[in-house]
Amino acid sequence: MSCVSYSTANHSPRRAETHPLTWRLRDDGKPVWLEQYQRQDGYAAARQALTQLSPQEVTQRVKDSGLKGRGGAGFPTGVKWGLMPDDELLNRRYLLCNADEMEPNTYKDRLLMEQLPHLLIEGMLISAYALKAYRGYIFLRGEYVDCARHLLGAIDEARSAGLLGQHILGSEFSFELFVHTGAGRYICGEETALINSLEGRRANPRSKPPFPAAVGVWGKPTCVNNVETLCNVPAIIGNGVDWYKGLARRGSEDMGSKLMGFSGRVKHPGLWELPLGIPARELFEDYAGGMRAGYRLKAWQPGGAGTGFLLPEHLDAAMYAGGIGKVGTRMGTGLAMAVDDSVNMVGLLRNMEEFFARESCGFCTPCRDGLPWSVKLLRALEQGQGQPGDLQTLEQLCNFLGPGKTFCAHAPGAVEPLASALKYFRGEFEAGIAQPLSQALEI
User: Fold this and answer.
1) HSE (side-chain half, CA atoms, 13 Å) at 377
2) Which pairs from 380-386 meet CB under 8 Å and 24+ separation?
3) What torsion do the CA atoms of 285, 290, 296, 300 make, to the nearest 10 degrees?
4) What's the sign of the alpha-carbon dihedral 26, 31, 34, 37?
5) What number is the average pLDDT over the span 410-435?
6) Tens digits of residue pLDDT in 87-115
7) What is residue 91's predicted lDDT score, i.e. its pLDDT?
8) pTM of the entire structure?
């Protein structure tokens, strides 16, 4: 497995002042180990937090910064930390890093773990101090073999240097960190399914409440954060709240920078750290270089397979949650995919829904039965054997599997691209009906 490349095409030089996540990346793509990381101010923010700030002050800074979860849901990180009970009797608390990056077309966390493992460790160390968590786990996608090797090596380095273990940096705080590789289930991206899997149980989501902040892994208070989210914490502590807010483009309601990318038949597919609020057109044209010769942009998804399709005219939307929300879908992971004019949307959706149907945990009926039903209908339409009423049935399924109608958010995310494709490319679905509805009524 080769390391993820950080594209530098049409990219300004990486600097600590503007690219807090990526400025330390090596040009050769190799991991930044402890010696180099410390030469570049690594663990300086952790030292500041553990020796100069209280856990409450660290939490307040993260809350004031406006940092939101970078895994797709976008919940305010500091607010989530504040949900952890402040009862000193509950001395066993856990910090879990969600590194189960199985969203199709998403690869940002892999870059950080493969090439900057100490950034994640430092982010978890500071976060654990704020949460008063004595133990942390990185729940890692099992296929990320290089990530596992590099994280384990970095953890060993940090422990040998006194940056993990007992009385870290001469403080009273102690923290142990472990890597746990999963068996490969998309549903583990849901935090309570992740917790169940970590405990050795079937990866089904749990009923909420109680929420993990109160009753999480092994029944103890638990906080679950995404890799990229945790990697933002050292820069916020080291550089301050006002600096972090200033990274975003004017008008963005979300603060900081974000790893964004574009894949598909674009000239320069890649991954970049960019200010939140950047227009999608700038990402597509200036960074990804637009479409390759001979191809035209037909549609695009802003942030993974679980986000709705948009049209070329939507490229003027700003890349932050509210900006993408204005054009009818979600920011998601921020890694966009371009669909070119050679792609049939029915076949593309059939492929996507097959994935989502296979990855359903099977706990609730709408998801367990509804997603395979959509695959069956899409397969028939793709083969030109669809029946009158199939499109109406697909639309009903999108409604039945929508937000608030299933046990977790898996099914709503699965049908969002289907609903948008039916809206924008209905003619391609109608072309798969073997007998037009008018002829069927005459018979």
Assistant:
1) 25
2) 380/432, 381/346, 381/350, 381/429, 381/432, 381/433, 382/344, 382/346, 382/347, 382/350, 382/432, 383/432, 384/431, 384/432, 384/434, 385/432, 385/434, 386/429, 386/432, 386/433, 386/434
3) -70
4) positive
5) 95
6) 665 568 999 999 999 988 899 999 999 99
7) 67
8) 0.93
What DSSP string runs through 261-284?
A: EEESSBSS-EEEEEETT-BHHHII
Contact call for residues 384 and 378 (beta carbons, < 8 A): no
Q: How far apart are CA 31 and CA 37, in angstroms?
A: 10
Which residues, in sequence order, are CB contacts of 442 under 8 Å at separation 6+?
A: none
Specify the higher pLDDT residue, 69 or 91.
69
In order of 175, 192, 204, 239, 292, the CA distances from 407 in angstroms are 34, 12, 10, 40, 41
Domains, the chain: 34-245 (3.40.50.11540), 257-340 (3.10.20.600), 346-430 (1.20.1440.230)
Confirm if 230 and 132 have CB atoms less than 8 A apart: no
Contact 295, 254 (CB under 8 A): no
DSSP state of 209: S
- What's the CA gap between 66 and 85, in Å, rounded? 21
Cα of 332 vs its chain's centroid, Å: 7
- What values do phi and psi take at 379, rounded to 5? -65, -40
AA letter at 372: P
Query: Minimal CA–CA distance to 198: which of 99, 119, 60, 101?
Result: 99
What's the pLDDT at 14?
76
Q: What is the mean pLDDT of the chain?
A: 93
| CB hemisphere CA count around 61 (13 angstroms) | 25
pLDDT tens digits, one per residue of 173-188: 999 999 999 887 899 9
> Sign of the C-alpha dihedral, residues 331, 333, 335, 338?
negative
Q: Are the C-beta atoms of residues 113 and 147 closer than 8 Å to each other?
A: yes
- pLDDT reading at 9 higher than 60: no
- In the DSSP assignment, the letter for residue 165 is B
Separation in Å, CA 105 to CA 150, 262, 296, 358: 23, 9, 20, 17
